[in-house]
Amino acid sequence: MTNKDLAELIFPDINKTIEDYEKMYPRRTIEESAAVTRFAPSPTGYMHIGNFMQAIIDFVIAKNTNGIFYLRNEDTDQARQIDGAVELIMDNLNDYNMTPDEYEFKDQVIGNYGPYIQSKRKEIYHTFIKHLISIGRAYPCFCTKEELDEMREFQESRKVRPGYHGAFAKCRKLSIEEQIERIKNGDAYVIRFKSNGDFDRKFRFIDEVKGLLMLNENDIDDIIMKSDNQLPTYHFAHVVDDYLMGTTHVIRGEEWLSSVSKHIEMFDAFGFKAPKYIHTPLILKKDGNSTRKISKRKDPEASMSYYSELGYPTMAVVESLMTIINSNYEQWHDANPDKSYLDFEYNPKKMSSSGALYDLMKLDDISKNIISKMTKEELYEDSYKWSKKYSDSLKSIIEKDPEYYKSILNIEREQVKPRKDIAKYSDIEGLIWYMYDDLYNPTDYEWGNVTDKNEISKILKTYMDKYFTLDSEEWFNKVKELADELGYASNMKDYKKNPDNYKGNVADVATVLRVALTSQSRTPDLCQIMNILGKDRILERYSSFYK
Ligand code: GLU
């Protein structure tokens, strides 16, 4: 009996060879410098910001080098499968304009290296496992859960390095005859990789972010095929898929760094060249005076749905992540404000290797800037699209009168120094409600220095009687004249010299005009607001203070 017999017994229906697959999936004919990257999420129904950051790096590297960015659905852990999880991933990539060059979605396969869904690749994995068994680099393991628990407990109590290695790898010592007999007997088994490594030996490994590392060789006989569904584990699927799909750069979280030695040994066992690895650091957040890992459980911002629900423009989220992806991104962006982030050349050496601090305040700043540069049409389109999914109230405001809504968005827009008060689409309603009579029902007026009711009504009445205008050239002069008439300094210099000579200054008067019209002390340009509201509605709101 030989290893070949064992392989044949386990996989009698597998007739293809690795060479057959190599012919089916020939090496890609792309330029030498072109990178092939992949986003390989597990469909768990949740998109973590750290995974999304990796997808951005994948996308940027592929675009930088005229390469390929593909999506692979890593669904070998079928117990964790959730309905709609794949849609969530695809929608997210599409929303962010990061549609992969190759993917498989709803019976549509784009690209020649599929299936891109791991559960559909069983025959491929089995072919590769069959090969490993036949060369003596993989074997069936019959250990039961109880036996493995016992082993773990023993290792813990003796403080021995955990895992199925060395003397603990019981089943690697079974003879082929015994293995064949037990399989014929119907005993349940998994397939394990047979490691040739020595944990006490080190090898050189270059991580593109962390640089040269000296890692211990792997000596664990890891499971490569599970018993229940005969699907491979992550470690094995990674090696087979990234080889056949021609991945040049694997970008993944640093939690995988500790498994690299396994992956390298498996690539070696097949005689394949391993890809380059970019292990991304954890995303951190400030929590009081310390920083900690962004947590799926505690922090809503760990999920990409947070940003969609609040209505951040996708570019703001991408830019904010770019600032932690490369430390020189912000500087580059400042110097090239009109260029796309895809023109930025990603450099793994410029990525923090210890942890990437993500700052929501910074996201707001970036977002305010981006929204301030949108035309009113762009902001209208984007915010309307958002409202249809996330806000019935904003949606009905917009649909009532789209042109009126646009005129409000247009205040202090499309100019050299545009307004920067909107960070996300969910802010909009709270910033424009006072422009709508049916929503305008203030309970609180943010008066400034002038709070006396009689004084307020005098300012408003005098304004409407004598100084009201909608002409933007004239508007502020009229407010100054009003100030002069009522004993407020119209000139700030005069006021500063002799404050006691005046009741206040023109800013106090303007504040009364602003607050009486909007209830807010901070609004964009008041003259533009007045122009949109029109004289009748202004009179109605002002006269309510002096009737
Ligand atoms: N499916 C793995 C995960 O979601 C992918 C890791 C990788 O990119 O290789 O963590």
General description of the model:
It is a single chain. The protein has 547 residues and is of the alpha/beta class. It has helices spanning 3-10, 18-24, 49-64, 85-95, 122-134, 145-157, 176-184, 234-244, 260-270, 304-310, 314-325, 329-335, 360-372, 376-390, 392-400, 402-409, 425-432, 453-467, 472-486, 492-497, 506-518, 526-533, 535-543; strands at residues 36-39, 68-71, 103-105, 108-110, 138-141, 190-193, 202-207, 211-216, 223-225, 249-253, 276-280, 283-287, 290-293, 356-357, 488-489, 504-505. Strand 15, helix 20 and strand 16 (504-505) form a beta-alpha-beta unit. Helix 18 crosses helix 19 (472-486). The termini are far apart. It binds glutamic acid. Residues 40-42, 74, 238, 250, 252 line the site of glutamic acid.
List the helices and strands and how they pair.
Elements: H1 3-10, H2 18-24, E1 36-39, H3 49-64, E2 68-71, H4 85-95, E3 103-105, E4 108-110, H5 122-134, E5 138-141, H6 145-157, H7 176-184, E6 190-193, E7 202-207, E8 211-216, E9 223-225, H8 234-244, E10 249-253, H9 260-270, E11 276-280, E12 283-287, E13 290-293, H10 304-310, H11 314-325, H12 329-335, E14 356-357, H13 360-372, H14 376-390, H15 392-400, H16 402-409, H17 425-432, H18 453-467, H19 472-486, E15 488-489, H20 492-497, E16 504-505, H21 506-518, H22 526-533, H23 535-543
The protein binds glutamic acid.
Glutamic acid binds next to strand 10.
